[in-house]
Amino acid sequence: MRVVFMGSPDFAVPPLQALLEEHEVALVVTQPDKRVGRGKRLGAPPVKDVARAAGVPVVQPRSARAPELLEALRETGAELGVVVAYGKILPKAVLEAFPRGCINVHASLLPQYRGAAPIQWALAGGERETGVTIMQLDEGMDTGPMRKKRALAITANDTAGTLFQRLAPLGAELLLEVMDELAAGTSVATPQDHEAASHARMLKKDDGAVDWSRSASEVDCHIRAMDPWPGAFSAIGDTRIKLFLSRVAPEASVAEVGAEAGVHAPEPGQILGVDDDGLHVACGRGAVCIAGLQASGGRRISARAFASGHALPTGAMLRAAEDLVGGK
């Protein structure tokens, strides 16, 4: 099938590669190049690099409503638009530029977690599974009828980063199945239950602030959901620390570490100690063990190595989330 592909980040690369192997990609539409990193070097979206390597034309409109975009889409003669993490809501004119409309690869089990950050918010919400939905796009935010979806279990070690890596190829696989069904005339579009919908808004840097008053399970999910961006963070004094590689500490371990440190009734955010397993911190209920730490401007290292160069005294308090939001 002749298609136009619209997408931008790494998550969109496996679906694009699958289309390049099995179908005819007439055009790739992606976001404009942006300045990235400390050197503010101009960087291209990952999808652009893949398209150029395959010899596929690329356009990078600043607006999805640009008249020149609509003209370029119509000139392709494509039957279908395929959208994967493009980053812009498409207007009706774009959706209707193709005889078969546009389908979207969305990284959640719709109608749950509609929006820009479904992977992160599903993980932060303590979900035990997530997945991919292929839907027919309409003018709403992930509100169109669903053509197919497939679940994926969330493990205790998953981060947002590892879920991205696992869901992207699943999305590519499901996309090809739906396209085969569209070609055969067997694909069925099922309306979403809008009353059961939940939303996954775009992440902000301040979303990384850890609320130690929550349970250990909730704190653990939050830390893993913010990895790699924006990164969960807290602070001891004026030293801000990013937190990675979290797990819920077993109750027996919490009691043992606390007893060794002389902390028998810890407050949320209180440091229970640092050992080879990581930094042990009390939560509103239970405790977490955090294996990876990163100081501002530094690199991610083990908690033990971090403690060798930074003060993490047992009994000290990590600051509350409300004290950290906004760069305080």
UniProtKB/TrEMBL annotation:
Residue intervals of the Formyl transferase C-terminal domain: 203-310
Entry EC no(s): 2.1.2.9
Record protein name field: Methionyl-tRNA formyltransferase
Catalytic reactions of this protein: L-methionyl-tRNA(fMet) + (6R)-10-formyltetrahydrofolate = N-formyl-L-methionyl-tRNA(fMet) + (6S)-5,6,7,8-tetrahydrofolate + H(+)
Keyword Ligase: no
Keywords tagged on the record: Protein biosynthesis, Transferase
SUPFAM superfamilies, A to Z: FMT C-terminal domain-like, Formyltransferase
Cross-referenced InterPro entries: Fmt (IPR005794), Formyl_trans_C (IPR005793), Formyl_transf_N (IPR002376), Formyl_transf_N_sf (IPR036477), Formyl_transferase-like_C_sf (IPR011034), Met-tRNA-FMT_C (IPR044135), Met-tRNA-FMT_N (IPR041711)
GO MF annotation list: methionyl-tRNA formyltransferase activity
Domain Formyl transferase N-terminal: 1-178
Residues binding (6S)-5,6,7,8-tetrahydrofolate: 108-111
Organism, scientific name: Haliangium ochraceum (strain DSM 14365 / JCM 11303 / SMP-2)
Gene Ontology CC terms: cytosol
